[in-house]
Amino acid sequence: MPTTTASAVLGVKPLGFPWETSDPFLFCAYHDDAYPKSNGKLGVLPAALAGREIGQDFSRKDGWSMYHGDSVPGFPAHPHRGFETVTIVRKGLIDHSDSLGATARFGQGDVQWLTAGQGVVHSEMFPLLDANQDNPLELFQIWLNLPARSKMAPPHFTMLWSGQIPRKVDTDAAGRKTEVAVIAGALEGAGKPLAPPPDSWAAQPQSDVAIWTVTMEPGARWTLPAAGGDGTQRRLYFFKGASVQVAGRDVQPASVIELQADAQVELVNGDGIGEFLLLQGKPVGEPVVQYGPFVMNTQAEIMQTMQDYRRTQFGGWPWPDSAPVHGTDPARFARHPGGREERPDPVSGKIAA
């Protein structure tokens, strides 16, 4: 029988920046920015930029950062090779553009899954659409490693719209609810799992990769089911809430909890809404050599990557500037390489192609 005792908790650490991860995950950043009202041009009012080191601003001054943007916050064009980015947007919008020719505006629970593979350049800008009130943004960006056999796979652009993402709501004996959004992996009762990109480690049957967000009402009880794979690593990130008991152990917020993956683990939320991110998977188990936005298996491959990027720019940048934004219409959309378009209906969630 799966254990449910405190021994299921292997360790608890405070969250840092970025969040500590384990193989097959390389990186997890949580951005929670209370952006002010805009300048009417999707950017920040000049007065609000005072005292900031524009282009390198991770300060969280006044509760937000510019990152590498100068007027519109965000991350202008930058390259990747050898891994995948999974971007989960909980509040606000992201404007994406890339060297494949794809563009998108997504948010409000949408997820973008980008296989960098042999090389892609993309920008991720955070347009401030409202000139009359604040523009909050909340998102996770997760880097998922690719095995050596897939590091030079063709780049692949995938959108997982909020209305497509499987969800499960469990109610405990006291009527308190827990909702789980299943971005990757399978959860009994949540419906058919989504298909990861074809070259992803998550697409391998043995990988046991799961990416879930969990939201618990005050006082709710919920049991995290045991993972299925031998050797799976599992971490639970408690990023919002007052307190939680994990397998009987009291845990304070802003903690990462390493769990025994083959254990059922009961969570008992404290006062207030409790919010968690679950990352689990079987390790790729290969050497990791990282240089900035490139992740390969050897130093020689990193040197080759740098040479390739200098020579080819990974296909070049087809947009007129390094930080494109997509206008004032808040409607979400994606234009895929080759021109196919998707637009989720804001009410029904159905996708118009």
TrEMBL record:
InterPro entries to which the protein is assigned, alphabetical: Pirin (IPR012093), Pirin_C_dom (IPR008778), Pirin_N_dom (IPR003829), RmlC-like_jellyroll (IPR014710), RmlC_Cupin_sf (IPR011051)
Residue span, Pirin C-terminal domain: 212-315
One protein family per Pfam: Pirin_C
Superkingdom of origin organism: Bacteria
Gene3D superfamilies: Jelly Rolls
Region annotation Disordered: where it falls in the sequence: 320-353
Xref: CDD domains: cupin_pirin_C
Domain Pirin N-terminal: residue ranges: 69-144
Similarity annotation: Belongs to the pirin family.
Record's protein name: Pirin family protein
Organism: Caenimonas terrae
